[in-house]
Amino acid sequence: MSNQNRNYPAKSRDLPMPMAAQQGYGISEQSWKVLTEVTFPTAKTPEAILMALDYCKARKLDIFKKPVHIVPMWSAALGRNVETVWPSIMEIQTTASRTGVWAGMDRPVWGSDITKTFTGRYKDDNEQWQESSVTVTFPEWVAVTVYRIVGGKRCAFTEEVYWLEAYSTAGGKHSQVPTAMWIKRPKGQLAKCGKAASLRAAFPEECGYAAEEMDGKTLDDVSDARVIDGSATYIHDAAIGSNDHAVVDDAGVDANRVVDLSQIHPKVQKAVAELVRRTTAAGAWKAAYDYANQKFKGIDLTFALAELDKVSEVEPRTTQSLDQTEGTAMPPLTPKDMAMTQARQALGANR
Fold it and tell me: Is residue 80 domain-shared with residue 223, that is, in the same domain?
């Protein structure tokens, strides 16, 4: 019996239902079908949907109302797309409402219309680059005013968001062509971004970025990983000591398990990416694994080993030391950074 048959019930759908979906969230096969085919039709892995389920369970939200979106984002540091989970504008409004001090929102105020032709490349459904040229008429900017009760008074918070700065591109930074949704709903999508920006201004501790703002962006556009509510990266099953709903490829790498990048400090992510780059150039895989085990602990070590697993060969090509290449010292974390990393890890452990 194959590993896949051991861990997944027999299904005809593209994304098989992990046992954890039923055991941890009480999801039936019919509900899973709705999640994969209706709620999250573009999800690439079952684990991305599990992340969305985890988010909704923690926040006591109905996942079938789609309060979150699964957004693929390109990571230049990792050299690949990762699936991320971001709250929808509806979820951000729900968060503001739950504070008990949200006092309403005005209708959007629009700038003048602009017509512009965008030319460039985009990736089709088969992940192939295609040339495209499209003309879009859109408002130059939008301003939304959100009200919050502060000291017993109704205070206004207004943010302007510009279409050319906010729209999502079909090819990330490789293209200027808007995504299909921004072509179809140029005002509607900008309105969502305007609402999200003003809600953040009014509720900076409660509200973060919305999925509508992150679609088509890259992880490098985000300077603070704390705004990422759930970012998926594949990890080796052996690193976590569990075989639940694992699918292992020929190289022994678990193709489905994920780790939340919001629990990994940006400096650690950059250090790991640099370690992978230099190790790839030198072929010093054994030295890299030894280095990772010495420098990282806990979920940071799991993340580092996972990134090395994805690019390493079964047998190291050379035993060259990393010291013979460039220096590989990990950027030091400040006491504040270390405290934040520990807090994120503790939060992840309690979920």
Answer: yes
